[in-house]
């Protein structure tokens, strides 16, 4: 399930996906067993390092981006045989199968408080057709933005400890949705390179934005993260274009 304002979406897994899963490993007991050692789990830095395959793909992504800028802004190759591809190899193809989605009404108006998230969960349980006991006995993975997750954790902390499943909310696991994750990562990258717009001598990204006609104060916003990503891509193209022109002008 995914929260989106006053509405929610229940995404049912496809039959082909369910056939690849072991039913005994997708229940509350299996989930609790999997996370019981998380507080004491040692984190190995090598888990975050790229594999050889990932490094190769990263190389092809860079060369394809350079080739794209070269082709769009500088010139076309006279011969395409052996030319660098402008499309990197696909890592993991997302299924284009039309999903089965049901909509649920969560609340009359948006309420981001802990009380509001409690009302949302009660509304989800009622519209699912399950009793409170049945709903709380099943693992319920949900997607939401950072504020939703923080508010849910707040209300669960208030109810801790509790031996009643309907009260403890331990059957619900929240994770950031894909779009929220991408936005948070992109915002962190942009913010770290943005620079100080109050100083004309500062050579942060804000200078690039102004140079290509984008007001720097309108870039970092939560209402349209797609536009923010597109503007970051334009800055990236401008940077590559500058490097290519500099390299071309040198003997």
TrEMBL record:
Cross-referenced InterPro entries: DUF6589
Domain of life from the UniProt record: Eukaryota
Domain DUF6589: 44-248
Pfam families assigned to the protein according to its UniProt record, in alphabetical order: DUF6589
Protein name: DUF6589 domain-containing protein
Organism this protein belongs to: Puccinia graminis f. sp. tritici
């Amino acid at each position: 399930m995914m929260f989106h304002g006053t509405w929610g979406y229940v995404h049912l897994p496809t039959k082909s996906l369910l056939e690849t899963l072991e039913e005994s490993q997708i229940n509350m007991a299996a989930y609790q067993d999997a996370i019981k050692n998380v507080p004491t789990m040692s984190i190995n830095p090598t888990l975050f390092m790229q594999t050889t395959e990932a490094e190769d793909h990263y190389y092809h992504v860079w060369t394809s981006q350079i080739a794209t800028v070269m082709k769009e802004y500088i010139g076309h190759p006279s011969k395409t045989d052996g030319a660098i591809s402008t499309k990197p190899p696909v890592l993991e193809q997302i299924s284009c199968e039309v999903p089965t989605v049901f909509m649920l009404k969560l609340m009359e108006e948006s309420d981001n408080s802990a009380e509001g998230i409690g009302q949302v969960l009660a509304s989800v349980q009622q519209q699912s057709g399950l009793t409170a006991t049945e709903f709380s006995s099943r693992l319920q993975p949900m997607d939401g933005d950072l504020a939703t997750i923080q508010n849910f954790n707040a209300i669960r902390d208030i109810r801790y400890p509790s031996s009643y499943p309907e009260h403890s909310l331990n059957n619900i696991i929240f994770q950031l949705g894909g779009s929220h994750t991408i936005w948070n990562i992109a915002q962190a990258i942009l913010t770290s390179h943005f620079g100080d717009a109050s100083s004309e001598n500062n050579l942060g990204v804000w200078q690039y934005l102004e140079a290509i006609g984008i007001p720097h104060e309108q870039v970092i916003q939560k209402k349209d993260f797609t536009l923010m990503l597109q503007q970051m891509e334009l800055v990236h193209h401008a940077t590559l274009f500058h490097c290519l022109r500099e390299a071309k002008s040198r003997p």
